[in-house]
Amino acid sequence: MPIHRRSLLLGAPFLLAGCTTARRQEPTPVARSLAYAPSYETMYAALDGEPYPVPAVDLSQIDPRFLRREVAYATREEPGTIVVDVEARYAYLVMENGRALRYGVGVGKEEGFNFRGAATIARKAEWPRWTPTPDMIRREPERYAKYAGGLPGGPGNPLGPRALYLYRDGRDTLYRLHGTIEPWTIGTMVSSGCIRLLNQDIIDLYRRVPAGSRAVVLSSAGTAA
């Protein structure tokens, strides 16, 4: 599915980053007319071999267009680059010959919360520790102050089983691509700025992307860079 490249805005404020949902949203089952291939039952089955449970995804809660698939993708970015299209709610791992692996994502609940531009995956972590940013604590101290020292990785951690850390010019932007404990939010504007994927998808992407890889988060302006 070819798409046009979006323009890059390089001045996004770092301190709006965060990785949690503003308020808990109850899952809404997807209409059964939006059928998914039987192979997705296997792709999104529970995973063994992890230190904590990774349950199967309830596919009735996910719009099928946000499930992982290989697609045609026109871009000037080199293979191995991650391209996040915030407006479309997709992350693409660029492949050879005009192809890409496409993952559905959840993005920032407000336009200003989303990182824009180019970055480097300077760090990767399995079952990462989560710490709210100072800005999150200032905005909602009643929710986040108790986690100022960080929350260890585990089933209740909002980063899920994997995280890819975005750096620019050697500096942590405080934005990540990570898993989620709220799979039904994929395809929505929901987070405090980070890019969330289904847990099975972030584990798949984590395996494919080495540290040092390039990541590009596109703007929603719809114009070429």
TrEMBL record:
Keywords: Cell shape, Cell wall biogenesis/degradation, Glycosyltransferase, Hydrolase, Peptidoglycan synthesis, Transferase. GO terms for molecular function: glycosyltransferase activity; peptidoglycan L,D-transpeptidase activity. GO terms for cellular component: extracellular region. SUPFAM superfamilies: L,D-transpeptidase catalytic domain-like. It holds the Pfam family YkuD. GO terms for biological process: cell wall organization; peptidoglycan-protein cross-linking; regulation of cell shape. InterPro entries: LD-transpeptidase, LD_TPept_cat_dom, Transpep_catalytic_dom. The keyword Repeat does not apply. Pathway: Cell wall biogenesis; peptidoglycan biosynthesis. Residues 80-218 form the L,D-TPase catalytic domain. The active site is at residues 178, 194. The keyword Transferase applies. Belongs to the YkuD family. This is ErfK/YbiS/YcfS/YnhG family protein.
